[in-house]
Design goal:
2 domains; elongated; binds phenylalanine; two-stranded antiparallel sheet; BirA Bifunctional Protein, domain 2
Length: 342
Amino acid sequence: MEKLLQQLEEYKKAISAENPTNADEIESFRIKYLGTKGIVKSVMGFMKDVAVEKKKEAGQLLNDFKLLVEAKYEALKNTATTHQANASNIDISLPGNPINVGSRHPLSLIKNQIITIFQRLGFAVAEGPEIEDDWHNFGAMNLPEDHPARDMQDTFYIHQNPAWLLRTHTSSVQARVMEKQQPPIRVICPGRVYRNETISARAHCFFHQVEGLYIDENVSFADLKQTLYYFVQEMFGKDVKVRFRPSYFPFTEPSAEMDISCLICEGNGCNVCKHTGWVEILGSGMVHPKVLENFGIDSNKYTGFAFGMGVERICQLKYRVNDLRLYSQNDIRFLKQFTGVV
Ligand code: PHE
């Protein structure tokens, strides 16, 4: 016991004389005293030689010694950090630099909202290539080579191989789904599409769409109307009104365009709705039997509806973005307005 006391005193003296400042020396201190083969471990070995009645007292002493060494080690580490900070002129009491949190692009926000709404109705998401062949983009969709409706969807071709083009709508993805899968089919096809347009506030050479396709037995125009009405209410709120206008698409028959009551002027008339109180948001219709037959789907047994909307247009109405070019200019003043929007 005497020997132990004496030994501890010596170590304590040695420890108070140790004043390492750099990280390597402090680590050596830790290994020397607190390591697995260190001094603290080795003095613990004295316990076995201590008489039974003294064990409690010796235990206490050894424990105190261990705490002392640990406290010294912590103190050395702290002073080292302060030294380091002082040496490099860092004021560690200053608040940190804020981390700039990025935000999702408004078109991604809207696209995701559209997807979520249709997923609730049981639609699956299908995607396909942006570089397409003529068949998937036009031919299969009942737009043969000399069809005048191709004029409205002029696009970009590749010199070396005019059979390839940049898709003008994501109907091409619907074609790829019908190619692989027999009904029931219930998909939405989000993605970027291209058209040969002069860039202005109202037109761009690329934009984004979400198209939808539902084919099964007994699918009717009533299903189409109710599905799209549900979508509009989920997207814009319960007060919004809808109307369908007859239209023409080669791949649907009958076809209809859907308008919603203008959210900007609430139907009173403004620039966005061209003073009509209504804005067009999508095209739709019952899938043309020829399109079904193109994919070997029996048009006597199955019917279906399809629709297609522009994400930019939905975004314009929801967030009042009045110039299409804002979406692709990467102006941080525009983009940061959507921070925190989900
Ligand atoms: N594909 C059409 C377009 O891009 C939209 C549409 C899809 C219309 C499905 C009707 C049915 O203009």
